[in-house]
Amino acid sequence: MYSDERMARRILIFITKLAINTLALLIVDSMFQGIWFDNDKAMIAAALVLAIVNTYLRPLVLVLTLPINVLSLGLFTLVINALMLELVSWIIPAFHVTGFWTAMGAALVVSIISFLLNWFLKPDTVRVDVRRF
């Protein structure tokens, strides 16, 4: 029973973070002319791939670029976020990012929106009760 509760909690956290990524990408799409989606499915797919890239690839890149990040006082993280967004646009052909500086601005906006929504919603503190009848 404990593992069911833990699994339900993880799924709920994942869905919440996916919704946060989708909302952040929707806002970025409306703010920047150089970023657009061909359809709604591309936006959801981009949010899903962005969540996967941020979960698995971004920490590795952050560790590998730690000296540069320390020298830049953490500002190189914004470059890494922009590159992750460019990577997602390369993986999802229906998600378009026209240039690096557009990706840089979008990465900044996505980071701010994600931070604020994660702080406000606190998805990691969700409690799930699983009851069987």
Would you kindly provide a brief summary of this structure?
With 133 residues, the chain is mostly helical.
Describe it.
It is a single chain. The longest helix is centred in the first third of the chain and has 30 residues, at 2-31. Helix 2 packs across helix 4 (76-91) and helix 4 (76-91) crosses helix 5 (100-121). The chain is globular and about 55 Å long. 74% of the residues lie in helices and 5% in strands. Strands 1-2 form a two-stranded antiparallel sheet. It has one domain (2-122). With 133 residues, the chain is mainly alpha-helical. The chain has five helices and two strands. 18% of the residues are buried. The mean pLDDT is 88. The protein has helices at 2-31, 40-64, 66-71, 76-91, 100-121, and strands at residues 35-37, 95-97.
Question: Main attributes?
Answer:
mainly alpha, 2 strands, two-stranded antiparallel ribbon
Counted beta strands: 2
Count of individual domains: 1
Helix content: over 70%
Radius of gyration: 16 Å
> How many alpha or pi helices?
5
List low-pLDDT spans. none
Largest sheet: 2 strands, antiparallel
Give the helices and strands as they follow along the chain: HEHHHEH
N- to C-terminal separation?
13 Å
Mean pLDDT: 88
* Class by SSE composition: mainly alpha
The best one-word shape is globular
Strand order of the largest sheet: 1-2
Strand content: under 5%
